[in-house]
Amino acid sequence: MMIKRPQRRGRNFFGMISGAPQMEELFGLLERVARADVSVLVRGETGTGKELVARAIHELSPRQGKAFRAVNCASFNSELLASELFGHVRGAFTGAVKDRRGLFALADGGSVFLDEIAEIPLEVQARLLRVLQEQRFVPVGGTDAVKVDVRLISATNKALRREVEQGRFREDLMYRVRVVPIFLPPLVERQGDIELLVWHFIEEFNAREGMPRRIEGLSEEAFEALQSYGWPGNVRELRNVIEYAFVVGEGEVLAYGDLPPELRGEGPVDSRELERGGGESGRSERQEIVAALRAAGGSREDAASALGISRTTLWRRMKEYGIED
Ligand SMILES: Nc1ncnc2c1ncn2[C@@H]1O[C@H](COP(=O)(O)OP(=O)(O)OP(=O)(O)O)[C@@H](O)[C@H]1O
Ligand SMILES: [Mg+2]
Questions:
Q1: Residue 152 forms beta bridges with which residues?
Q2: CA distance 266 to 36
Q3: Which protein residue has the closest C-alpha to ligand 1 atom 9?
């Protein structure tokens, strides 16, 4: 049986598609927070949409229409990051052949987005603190302070509090950057969003020029695998998985075999044992599954974890063996 696109469509909030209640609440919070000119720290796992949140805040704020400048703090060493943020004067260091304006100067009147803020080296943290306290900074190698008016939006997938405890992040800076902390939930916690996003990305790739196939539906197995996967890479990973399926598979039904190995992945040891048709007890695989389901009171989730296989595999084996709930 082919699973088709549901009627229900999510909301598109500045590029963030969702129909989950927590996200609805979050969108409301973003609207309120954006209006106040305070520093916001967005916290969430990789691929949850932290950058989209940062942009949404800027767009909803009175600074909309002014500059929005983003930098990933993890991709520079200390010296280069300082220069990236605050600029430098000619001769400040080897390679500084002319004056250069930094991000804070370029974003004057607008917003600066510091991604992976937990990775800022301590030396640069001291300078950043000064910008937040005084709205002024001195370019690297320079003598005169430059005045700026920027709003700071930062993001991290780490708990800053822990970074503070371990001496890697200044406590005073932590309070300055997270006047309002915003937590972005992992994809698996957003009820209904996996399905919504699967279809959102299918439509995106269906519309893309040069795609080798058009997808109109999902096989039950594929659907179940997408639903039961843990999505450690969140929305970004989901988008990649759909793109992968467009490229490796054929025809209008997205099949189980079109999914990358992680989604078809099994618990390493136990599942192989099961594959060979029975564990030490000598029972058949079918008996093992029935016993596990009974012991779990019919809960597939519990039975799968007792068997050391994914819910998807369990579901598939139940179909193979004709086991009803
Ligand atoms: N709710 C959503 N709806 C549609 N697309 C989304 C959603 N959330 C994220 N995306 C897309 O997923 C990708 C990852 O989002 P983004 O870069 O904002 O994540 P991130 O939290 O900043 O990740 P990282 O921590 O790895 O930098 C982007 O392509 C983004 O457009
Ligand atoms: Mg990001």
A1: 112
A2: 48
A3: 49
d(CA 312, CA 304): 9
Q: How far apart are CA 120 and CA 169, in angstroms?
A: 8
Output the pLDDT for position 72: 95
Tell me which residue range forms the domain holding 100: 21-184
Nearest atom of ligand 1 to the alpha carbon of 184: 21
Domain count, the chain: 3
Residue 176 and residue 48 share a domain: yes
Positive or negative: CA dihedral 59, 63, 68, 74: negative
Gap from CA of 255 to ligand 2 centroid (Å) = 30
Give 281 Cα–ligand 1 centroid separation in angstroms: 47
- Write the pLDDT tens digit of every residue in 49-77: 999 999 999 999 999 999 999 999 999 99
CATH of the domain at 255: 1.10.8.60
Nearest residue (by CA) to ligand 1, atom 5, is 16
Same-domain status, 178 and 203: no
The CATH number covering residue 275 comes to 1.10.10
Please check the confidence at residue 89 and state whether its pLDDT lies above 80.
yes
pLDDT in tens, 169-206: 999 999 999 999 999 999 999 999 999 999 999 999 99
Give residue ranges with CB within 6 A of ligand 1.
15-18, 44, 46-52, 115, 157, 235-236, 239
How many whole angstroms from 234 Cα to the centroid of ligand 1? 8
Tokens coding 102: 């930094």
Ligand nearest to the CA of 158: 1
In angstroms, what is the span from residue 309 Cα to ligand 1's centroid? 29
DSSP 117: G
Residues 217, 253: contact at Cβ < 8 Å? yes
Cα(138) to centroid of ligand 1, in Å? 33
Estimate to the nearest angstrom the gap between the alpha carbon of 8 and the chain centroid: 23
